[in-house]
Design a protein that fits this description.
A: Jelly Rolls, 2 domains, four-stranded antiparallel sheet, B: Jelly Rolls, transmembrane helix (chain B)
C-alpha cells in the first residue's frame, strides 16, 4: 500500500475517533436512513471499538456487515468489513436508502451482552482526495486543491437542490390528488344519498300500497 | 545510503501529514457537522454519543419526521453525568451548549411512551471548535504572507476562500434541515390522502348498509304481526 494511502487512512482513523458513535450490541443490527438523489456516490467511514477501551475483548476478530437497501427495499450492497474501513456505493434510484450495520464476530461468543462502539461518518458526493499536504509544495497547488473542494461542495449543493425540486413536484401532486379525491368522494356520497333516498321512498310506497295500508 | 535517505524523508512526510491532520478535518475548516435520520421503534430509547474537546460550542437540533403524534422525548447528558436538556414529547427542538467539556456527550431519544407507533427522527450536531478558529487552515500556515500575485494578497485569497467554505457548509446544513421538514410534510400529506379515501369509502358503505337495513326492518315489522288496519 502506498504511503499516501496509509497516510490517508490514518487521517480517516483520527477523524473518525472524534466522530459520532452509537452503541451496538453483538449480533444487533442498527440502521441509518439517508435521503439520497439518484446517481450519487456515497462514502461511509466506520470504526468499531469495544465499549470499554481497556477491556480485553474476547472476540478479537470484530467485523461489520454493511447492508444498503434502496427505496424499494431491495438490497443494493451487502459486504463484510473488518473493524475499520470505508464503503462506497452509488445510488440508482432517488429516495430513502437504509444503511444497516450488524456486528458479527468470527468466534462464537458465549457472552452475548458485550457492547461495541461504532463510529460513523457518511459523506455524499464526490470528494477529490487531497494528497498529503506537503509544505514544500507549490502554493498554487494548494490553491488549486482548495478551489476543487469548493467546486465539489457547490456541485453537491446544486444536486441536492435539484432533488429537492423534484420532491416538491411530487408533494404538489399528492396535494392535488387529495383535493380532487375529497371533491370526488363528496359528490359520490351526495348522489348515492339522493338515489338511496328515492329508492327507499319508492319501495315503501309500493310496499304500503301492496299491503293495502294506504 | 540513498535508500535510507528516501525512507527517512518518507517518514518525515508521514509525520507532517499526521501533525496537520490533528487540526484538519476531512475537508478543511474547524467545524464538524453530523446528521442522521433513524427509525426509533415503539417503546424503546436510542442514545448517540459525540466526542467534544474543551470549550467548543455545540448545537444539537432534532425533528420528528414520521410516526403518529410526531413527538419524541430528548435528553442531553454531559460527560460528567449532568443532565443539561430534558424535553418531554416535543416534535422538534434546538439546543446549544456554549462551552463544552472534554469528553463524550450523550444524546438520547426516548419513545417509551408510545406502545404502537415507531418514530423517524432526524437530528444534527454542529460543533464549532474555538481552538482552531483563530488559527484557521493550517495547510496555508507556512506560506509567505507577504507573497502577492499582482494586486491580490495570498492572505486575502485565503480569507475569502475560508469564508466561502464556511458559507457553503452553512448552506448544506440548512438544506438538510429543509429536507427533513419537507419529508415530514410529505408523510403527513400521504397519510391524509389515505385517510380521506379510507373514511369516505367506509362512510359510503355504512350509508348503503343503513339504507337497506331500514327498508327490510320496516318490511319485517309489518310482515311479522300481520296486522291490517282496516
Amino acid at each position: 500500500m502506498s504511503l499516501q494511502g496509509i497516510g490517508f487512512l490514518f487521517q480517516c482513523y483520527l477523524v473518525l475517533a472524534a466522530a459520532m458513535y452509537f452503541d451496538l450490541g453483538e449480533q444487533e443490527q442498527k440502521c441509518i436512513i439517508e435521503e439520497i438523489p439518484e446517481d450519487m456516490l456515497v462514502t461511509g467511514y466506520f470504526l468499531l471499538e469495544p465499549w470499554e477501551m481497556n477491556a480485553l475483548s474476547h472476540s478479537p476478530h470484530l467485523g461489520v456487515t454493511v447492508t444498503v437497501r434502496d427505496p424499494n427495499h431491495e438490497v443494493l450492497m451487502s459486504k463484510r468489513y473488518g473493524k475499520f474501513s470505508k464503503f462506497t456505493f452509488t445510488s440508482h434510484a432517488s429516495g430513502q436508502h437504509y444503511l444497516c450495520f450488524q456486528t458479527n464476530s468470527t468466534r462464537f461468543s458465549v457472552f452475548a451482552g458485550e457492547r461495541l462502539k461504532l463510529h460513523l461518518d457518511v459523506q455524499m458526493g464526490e470528494h477529490s482526495i487531497d494528497p498529503v499536504p506537503d509544505k514544500t509544495k507549490d502554493n498554487m497547488k494548494n490553491l488549486e486543491n482548495s478551489l476543487r473542494h469548493l467546486v465539489d461542495q457547490m456541485i453537491f449543493i446544486t444536486r441536492q437542490q435539484e432533488y429537492q425540486r423534484e420532491k416538491e413536484e411530487v408533494f404538489r401532486q399528492i396535494g392535488d390528488n387529495t383535493n380532487s379525491k375529497v371533491l370526488w368522494w363528496a359528490m359520490v356520497q351526495t348522489s348515492v344519498l339522493l338515489t338511496v333516498g328515492f329508492w327507499q321512498m319508492k319501495r315503501l310506497k309500493d310496499f304500503f300500497i301492496a299491503k293495502k295500508l294506504v | 545510503m540513498g535508500c535510507e535517505w528516501r525512507m527517512m524523508s518518507a517518514g518525515l512526510c508521514l509525520l507532517t501529514s499526521l501533525i496537520l491532520t490533528v487540526d484538519l478535518t476531512l475537508g478543511f475548516g474547524p467545524n464538524k457537522d453530523m446528521q442522521f435520520t433513524f427509525l426509533l421503534s415503539a417503546g424503546s430509547t436510542e442514545c448517540f454519543y459525540q466526542t467534544t474537546a474543551r470549550s467548543d460550542s455545540m448545537e444539537v437540533g432534532y425533528q420528528v419526521i414520521a410516526g403518529s403524534g410526531l413527538d419524541v422525548g430528548f435528553a442531553l447528558i454531559s460527560p460528567t453525568g449532568y443532565r443539561l436538556v430534558s424535553d418531554f414529547r416535543r416534535s422538534d427542538g434546538i439546543h446549544m451548549v456554549d462551552s463544552t467539556e472534554d469528553g463524550d456527550y450523550r444524546l438520547c431519544f426516548d419513545n417509551s411512551f408510545s406502545k404502537l407507533s415507531e418514530k423517524m427522527v432526524f437530528f444534527e450536531v454542529n460543533i464549532n471548535s474555538e481552538s482552531s478558529s483563530v488559527g484557521g487552515s493550517n495547510e496555508w500556515e507556512n506560506m509567505a504572507i507577504t507573497e502577492s500575485m499582482g494586486e491580490y494578497n495570498m492572505e486575502d485569497i485565503r480569507a475569502q476562500m475560508d469564508s466561502v467554505y464556511q458559507h457553503l457548509e452553512r448552506s448544506r446544513q440548512i438544506l438538510a434541515v429543509l429536507r427533513a421538514l419537507e419529508a415530514r410534510d410529505r408523510y403527513l400529506l400521504e397519510d391524509n390522502l389515505w385517510r380521506v379515501s379510507f373514511w369516505s369509502c367506509l362512510s359510503l358503505l355504512v350509508m348503503l348498509f343503513v339504507a337497506v337495513t331500514q327498508i327490510y326492518t320496516l318490511k319485517r315489522l309489518f310482515a311479522d304481526t300481520k296486522r291490517v288496519c282496516t
